[in-house]
Amino acid sequence: MTHFKKLAALLLLMPLLAACSNAPADSIVEDLIRGQYEQAHSMMANGHGSVAMPTLENVDGVKCRSEDGEERYRCIADITQSIDGNSETKTVNFLVYKYNDEWALGS
Predict the structure, then answer these.
(1) How far apart (Å, rounded) are the C-alpha atoms in residues 89 and 107?
(2) What CA–CA distance (Å, rounded) separates 41 from 29?
(3) 52-77 pLDDT, tens digit each
(4) 86 bridge partner residues
(5) pLDDT of 42 over the 60 cut
(6) Residue-wise burial string across 16-41, b where 16 or more C-beta atoms lie within 10 A, e elsewhere
(7) In the chain, at which residue ranges do the beta strands (DSSP E only) sit?
């Protein structure tokens, strides 16, 4: 098989292999992170603390890889948040897993 045929076969198989991945979509991971921030703000608004809470500005660069099981993924993302007008971006490492057919966020 020539190099061209091998490359063509590889390019045709890549989308099929990617479609077989059970990893959560980036949008699902972003929604989970946003949900964590909303939950923290809700708790603070209900009188469970008086500390200034960061505001989520952006989630970018989500990357997940399988970890010790079919529905457990170790993910990283660049999270930009602001607190008292100061914005900061950090790369954060976290776990995403399925629980009762729903994606959940872990540490």
Answers:
(1) 18
(2) 19
(3) 789 999 999 999 999 877 789 999 99
(4) 83
(5) yes
(6) eeeeeeebbebeebbebbeeebeebe
(7) 55-66, 72-83, 86-99, 102-106
